[in-house]
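Late entry, written up from scratch paper. The run itself happened at the end of the previous shift, but nothing got recorded in the book at the time, so transcribing now.
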Amino acid sequence: MRKFSMVSVILFFIVEYVWLNQLFESVNERLADGKWTNTILYQVVVEPRGLLTLIFLLLVALLVVGWAVHYVYSEQKSWQHTSEHVGIGWVVPLILAVLGFLIPNVYVQVGMLLLQVTFIPLIPFIHQTVLFWKVVTNWLIQLAVIGLVLFGARGMLEDSIRIEKTELFTKLEAYQASGDLDRIQRLIEEVDLDQVERILDRVDIEQLIRILEVVDLDRIEQILSLFD
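Output as recorded:
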């Protein structure tokens, strides 16, 4: 069985690809619906392809580093021996990926992803004598690799997770630039809102609608422009 243990790594990346695409679609739906963020002024946009590429780069880097660290720590210096145990270790992330794919709950799926990220750096300790200096060194190496990958792909990360302005925010910026927003604010401060409310209560809305349906608004606008 150990001879075919590295097959788990191949299966992991296949299942992970399908599952993460599903996860990012669910995340985008929740972001668009405003379930996780306020979409009135800003909207968070997740670009699945770029984020998926970044995650896979990170996973491949952790695989290679974990493989090398296991070989260095192993008393039996054999790449075949290391590959066997590293392959067995990647069975756990594979199981988590399968569970995440089968359970259609975005919170459970995010939890599975966090468990994967937590477990993968521990794979170099499989079938090893765990000493304190090995633990510290391994974590420092893993953190350095994660930092280098994220730093090198920071442009991709910025493009993959964006915060975009909504149409309403763009309009408010235009009003602010033209001074209309300040005029509206001064008008609100000066107008007696109670009086406006009393006037609106007396307006026959249905009659107003009928008038607007028959009136030539373009003609009225031309007449009003004469008084500007």
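The chain has one domain: 2-165.
(Scratch paper discarded after transcription.)
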